[in-house]
Amino acid sequence: MRPSKSVSVSLITILILSLLTGCGGGDEGKNNSNANKEFVVGSANYTEQYIVGELLATLVEENMPDVKVMRKLGLNGTMVVHSAITNGDIDAAVEYTGSGLMQILHKDIIMDPNEAYKVVKDNYHDKWHIKWLQPLGFNNTYAMAVKRDYAEANGLENSSDLSKVASKATLGCSMEFSERPDGYPGWKQAYGMEFKEVIPMDPGLMYSSIKNDEVNVISAFSTDGRIPAFDLQILDDDKKFFPPYYAVPMVREDKLEEIPGLEELINKLGGKLNDKSMAGLNAKVDIDGMDAHEVAKEFLKEEKLIKN
Q1: What is the pLDDT of residue 30?
Q2: What is the pTM of this model?
Q3: Backbone angles phi and psi of 31, in degrees to 5
Q4: Which of 62, 124, 277, 294 has the highest count of CB atoms within 10 angstroms of its CB?
Q5: How far apart are CA 260 and CA 262, in angstroms?
Q6: How far apart are CA 253 and CA 125, in angstroms?
């Protein structure tokens, strides 16, 4: 039996609608592809980590408006960030190769930056299905720092020279540095000396403490903007104890699969920073009093990574 004209028209209409639906309905389907998806960014609890956390969060927020970006910034140290990303409490963070290598993986020091990155990247993939993306470009290694006049008065140029003053000097450092193997416990073995006193404190307080002569030495971060602002002198790590600490975004692999284009977007940050420019961003927060979010957003605009 031949179908009626009305049935034929109905079938044609259904076919056309099916084809449109299969193509995603044009731009509308594309715009909603990431609807109801979440991306949670974490960070540790010091200035640089707030800034790089905001770089990740704001980059995704501005370029993928359908994705709900959430922030869990200010977590209490490397181990807490690691626990959060492996447990799925956060999806991404910026970690440092030296921290991943020694504190998390308990590997021996690797001084070659490329080799250290490869070891960390491979192990995080194999153990936790976390992908290390393109390095941001700067190396925020630990560095022993003293006031310039203190260095001149005691003839301090490299870390070995601290043996001249260690027995009567006080070290100010973060709680993490006082405990981790790539911190004070390993450092004092490598250099064969101990300070008279070690005072663990909030990382931000180290700089005001040395500025006010409450401590003599601090375990500074080499990209901290307060080093030049407070006229501090970095002592050369002449025994090459501290490994490279290149900053690298790490993201759960299941989240990269869930949100198409996420990996490519974050990789646009690759190589955008160096030690000097990161120190400049840190100084905008610590010296100029700017908000970390505004500093990150300003940087992303300058690099043409966001429009607004």
Answers
A1: 43
A2: 0.81
A3: -65, -30
A4: 124
A5: 6
A6: 8
Structure confidence at residue 31 (pLDDT): 45
CA distance 27 to 94: 33
DSSP 88-142: TS-SEEEEEHHIIIIIIS-PPP---HHHHHHHHHHHHHHHH-EEE----S-B--E
DSSP secondary structure string for all residues of 212-249: TTS-SEEEEETT-THHHHTTEEEPB-TT--SPP-BEEE
| Phi–psi pair at 297, nearest 5 degrees | -65, -40
Q: Taking a C-beta distance cutoff of 8 angstroms, is the pair 50, 285 a contact? A: yes
How much of the chain is in helix, strand and coil states, percent to nearest 5?
A: 50, 20, 30
Contact 64, 92 (CB under 8 A): no
107-117 pLDDT, tens digit each: 988 999 999 99
Residues 6+ apart with CB under 8 A from 257: none
What does the chain come to in residues? 308
Residue 20 pLDDT level (bands cut at 50, 70, 90): very low
Q: Determine contact, residues 143/222, Cβ cutoff 8 Å.
A: yes
What is the pLDDT averaged over residues 192-219? 94
CA–CA distances in Å: residue 174 to residues 131, 171, 215 = 28, 10, 13
Summarize pLDDT for 141-199 with one digit per residue, the tens.
999 999 999 999 999 999 999 999 999 999 999 998 999 888 999 999 999 999 999 99
State the number of CA atoms in the 13 A half-sphere of 291 facing the CB: 4
Q: Are strands 92-96 and 247-252 parallel, antiparallel or unpaired?
A: antiparallel
- H/E stretch holding 20 reads helix 5-22
